[in-house]
From TrEMBL:
<keyword id="KW-0328">Glycosyltransferase</keyword>
<keyword id="KW-0479">Metal-binding</keyword>
<dbReference type="GO" id="GO:0006488">
    <property type="term" value="P:dolichol-linked oligosaccharide biosynthetic process"/>
</dbReference>
<comment type="pathway">
    <text>Protein modification; protein glycosylation.</text>
</comment>
<keyword id="KW-0256">Endoplasmic reticulum</keyword>
<dbReference type="GO" id="GO:0035269">
    <property type="term" value="P:protein O-linked glycosylation via mannose"/>
</dbReference>
<dbReference type="GO" id="GO:0046872">
    <property type="term" value="F:metal ion binding"/>
</dbReference>
<keyword id="KW-0808">Transferase</keyword>
<dbReference type="GO" id="GO:0006506">
    <property type="term" value="P:GPI anchor biosynthetic process"/>
</dbReference>
<comment type="function">
    <text>Transfers mannose from GDP-mannose to dolichol monophosphate to form dolichol phosphate mannose (Dol-P-Man) which is the mannosyl donor in pathways leading to N-glycosylation, glycosyl phosphatidylinositol membrane anchoring, and O-mannosylation of proteins; catalytic subunit of the dolichol-phosphate mannose (DPM) synthase complex.</text>
</comment>
<dbReference type="Pfam" id="PF00535">
    <property type="entry name" value="Glycos_transf_2"/>
</dbReference>
<comment type="subunit">
    <text>Component of the dolichol-phosphate mannose (DPM) synthase complex.</text>
</comment>
<dbReference type="GO" id="GO:0004582">
    <property type="term" value="F:dolichyl-phosphate beta-D-mannosyltransferase activity"/>
</dbReference>
<keyword id="KW-0460">Magnesium</keyword>
<protein>
    <recommendedName>
        <fullName>Dolichol-phosphate mannosyltransferase subunit 1</fullName>
        <ecNumber>2.4.1.83</ecNumber>
    </recommendedName>
</protein>
<feature type="domain" description="Glycosyltransferase 2-like">
    <location>
        <begin position="3"/>
        <end position="145"/>
    </location>
</feature>
<dbReference type="InterPro" id="IPR039528">
    <property type="entry name" value="DPM1-like"/>
</dbReference>
Amino acid sequence: SGNNFEIIIIDDGSPDGTQEIAEQLEKIYGSDKIVMREISVLFSLGTAYIHGMKHATGNFIVIMDADLSHHPKFIPEFIRKQKEGNFDIVSGTRYKGNGGVYGWDLKRKLISRGANFITQVLLRPGASDLTGSFRLYRKEVLQKLMEKCVSKGYVFQMEMIVRARQLGYTIGEVPITFVDRVYGESKLGGNEIVSFLKGLLTLFATT
């Protein structure tokens, strides 16, 4: 790609074979490119971010799902967009340009669209996709946002963007296509939806 990079894989001891695959990749590409780290504390997305940042040596961090629902082919676009506008954050968006979602049923699409619509109306964050997690961050910006964010679960990604706007960070967007995982199931359920609404109201009251 012409870019210096490292891939940091954070695994919480899941039984899906992540560690074995990462170890094989490390043998092929070297430990300077594939960095495998296990995490033993109670796992959450924020915990994984913090753990991963400790081992990141670059100035920019791309965060994506390891099940490849986020396709790596978009990463060069993220980098180009960042350089183009010197953005602090570049966010992948499913709801702009030629972005889209494949593999979701109507219910899941309505929940995601509804969550984004309600958030746009209440918070006016200036970004079109608030619940996606495929993003490029300037490392120091990600560190600052992690200090500010208190949410967990589905609302976490939304708070990251809202706090970024609150702190005056610049955000660019790149249209992406999201393909639902082939194996496993989404964790999105009734509890996560209630948690999202509570988090949304909290952000509305505090930003």
